[in-house]
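Ticket 4471: requesting a sanity check on a complex prediction with nicotinamide-adenine-dinucleotide. Repro inputs:
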Amino acid sequence: MELDGKVAIITGGASGIGRASVSTFLREGARVVIADINLEGARTVVVEEEAAGFAGRVVAVRTDVGSWDDVRAMVAAAVDAFGRLDVIFNNAGIPGGYPILEQEPDAHYYPIMRVDLDGVYFGILAAARQFAAQGTPGVIINTSSIYGQSAGERALVYGAAKAGVISLTRSAALELAEHDIRVVAITPGRANTPIIARFSEELTEFMAKEQLRGRLTEPSEIGEVVAFLASDRANAINGTVVSVDDGYIAFKNRLP
Ligand code: NAD
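Returned structure tokens:
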């Protein structure tokens, strides 16, 4: 198994991409801390995974990734539960979707930045400190988005946060390499999760058609890539962006 013996935190693990990654990580031998603001949802995942045979290998912690205190407590909880930390998947996020002329900083800027950018920054900091204190290698995987790579409708703040995640990833990788810590970002395109489910059927169909194979990406397909990136087999991948968008950016950049 790829992740045998590793201890991983997955933020936003109660739903969507994070939820699917919990299953993949467990199947690959990891012990997993599900950190989510939705504690009830995270506990439901624990019960489901225990029933699937992973009892004793998965716990839930209520964490608001926009709070530095919570994120430090989350890492402490992982060490409490499993004795160490090897991987963090900074994945929790909230969507944008507001037209510029209707935006208010307090309602539309700070709340999105707080979760989508601050949350990743805090996760990098807290995990890196733990890895360095242990004196062991570590892997940090951050969820960006195609909106961090391209302009997007109603994505002024979300896109800025997700572009920021790519920048955090590159600079953190540069500085943490001497501690044998790898840092990688992933950019999902249109993944079949509750974030997408709030759109109309028509818009969802349109989005799916813009991926090269005309379909939404399943969260489990992204979980597979994340588990690979977390494993030693991906040891050569560092300080970069791994696209998990089924060719969305390629489609957008195509020539006639
Ligand atoms: P989702 O809504 O299914 O899951 C997000 C999870 O994050 C939820 O469990 C939620 O409770 C949790 N969360 C929200 N705010 C939090 C906070 N402050 N602290 C801790 N947990 C919090 O969404 P998803 O589609 O699985 O998205 C996961 C990540 O992927 C997000 O960062 C999102 O921006 C990104 N993404 C998704 C898509 C897509 O098409 N679904 C595309 C590109 C990027």
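Notes from triage: The mean pLDDT is 97. Leaving this open until the requester confirms.
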